[in-house]
Specification:
Layout (H helix, E strand, L loop, with lengths): L8 E2 L5 E2 L1 H8 L4 E6 L4 H16 L5 E8 L3 H8 L8 H5 L1 H4 L4 H14 L3 E5 L2 H10 L18 H16 L4 H5 L3 H26 L3 E6 L9 H8 L5 E7 L12 E4 L3 E3 L4 E6 L2 E7 L4 H4 L7 E5 L2 E2 L3 H13 L4 E7 L2 E7 L4
Parallel strand pairs: 3-6, 3-7, 4-5, 4-6, 7-8
Antiparallel strand pairs: 1-2, 1-8, 9-10, 10-11, 11-12, 12-13, 12-14, 14-15
Helix pairs in contact: 2-6, 8-10, 10-11
Length: 351
């Protein structure tokens, strides 16, 4: 693949897409799903740009949010009508407790919707209801206001969820949670999450008559699984357009989504360096002065090849190596490439 500018829109073939091409495609769809990785700022900037484009085209859509429970709609209504400022919104939504990812990353989305006059809608099941499902299982779906429409996972989704569950089991920070959550209950929770968002999206569209832009994590929409499959069941005649991030690490997957946007994985470590995932490894793009990374000899331009003696292929490799080093009260050993030669750096990780 040739170099592609961050934020560029692509066809699954890798061909770049213009604003006009996107709008021509999007105007044929009742549901436009735009994926994200929650902590990737580039993803949210693209989402905001696509919202502005659709607003300027006169399609007058509404914007649905995975990160806000449907129960919090009265708060969003106050924001929609200008009675709540952007600065007041995080506290009113209890954002930090309910969602957790920095609100600053999502500011471009809220700003774009407000400036365009597009209403925002919460789509998700509440954390309290999700906890009830986690504790009581399927029977909790029939209680009170909990989702009445439950669409179980397909066989293909179960295979994907199997792999996700196994990854969760290997995460040191999530071990205690997965010990309390068996595989069957894990499948149930994911299906409840996707069913709730799809059902609420259809309900909002039916009530408002607006085209729906839905912002959600990519795992809920790629390859036509998750939310798109449930939208097809709940609203069979509607046209669905999915747009998700391509990270530039390999050739675009034509089965991933209808359209793609180019956003690399960027990671800012508390050890004082910023890393960008590339096909060669982790490119160090910035090192903070006086940080542990700088004191260990790291420089911008270094390529991270291994962490803790294991090949570096993704951020989870770095996370696992850091956790092991912390538990052993030992330095984090990183192997890097610099100007054709390889070096080992030892970063202090204190308890």
């Amino acid at each position: 693949m040739p170099s592609v500018k961050d934020g560029a829109l692509l066809k699954p073939s890798g061909e770049t897409l213009s604003r006009g091409d996107f709008l021509e495609t999007a105007q044929k769809a009742e549901y436009i799903l735009i994926g994200e990785t929650h902590d990737n700022a580039c993803d949210h900037r693209v989402q905001a740009r696509l919202i502005r484009w659709m607003a300027s085209s006169g399609t007058n859509p509404a914007v649905g949010l995975e990160m806000v429970p449907a129960d919090e709609q009265p708060v969003l209504d106050r924001f929609n009508t200008g009675k709540l400022t952007l600065e007041e919104l995080p506290e009113a939504l209890n954002w930090e407790e309910t969602w957790g990812h920095p609100f600053s990353l999502y500011k471009p989305v809220f700003q774009a919707a407000r400036k365009a006059g597009l209403p925002l809608y919460g789509l998700n099941i509440s954390p309290e209801d999700l906890d009830t499902v986690r504790d009581k299982g399927r029977q909790a779906l029939q209680q009170g206001d909990r989702p009445s429409r439950y669409i179980p996972p397909s066989q293909e989704e179960k295979k994907v969820l199997d792999r996700a569950y196994e990854r969760h089991e290997r995460l040191p920070s999530l071990k205690n949670r997965t010990e309390k959550l068996d595989r069957k209950r894990f499948f149930l929770i994911q299906a409840v999450w996707d069913s709730s968002m799809a059902a609420e999206t259809v309900r909002v569209r039916s009530r408002t008559g607006r085209r729906m832009i839905l912002l959600a994590g990519q795992g809920h929409m790629e390859h036509g699984r998750g939310i798109p499959r449930r939208l097809r069941i709940l609203d069979p005649s509607a046209h669905i357009l999915s747009v998700s991030a391509w990270r530039g690490l390999d050739q675009p997957d034509p089965e991933q989504s209808d359209l793609l946007f180019s956003c690399p994985v960027i990671f800012e470590s508390r050890l004082g360096f910023t890393l960008k995932l590339t096909s060669r490894g982790g490119l160090i793009t910035e090192v903070e002065p006086e940080s542990r990374a700088q004191k260990a000899g790291m420089r911008a331009g270094d390529i991270l090849l291994a962490a803790g003696g294991e090949p570096f292929q993704g951020l989870m490799d770095l996370h696992r190596a850091a956790v092991r080093a912390y538990k052993d009260n030992a330095p984090l050993v990183l192997r890097i490439e610099r100007e054709g030669s390889r070096k080992e750096l030892r970063l202090t990780i204190s308890r």
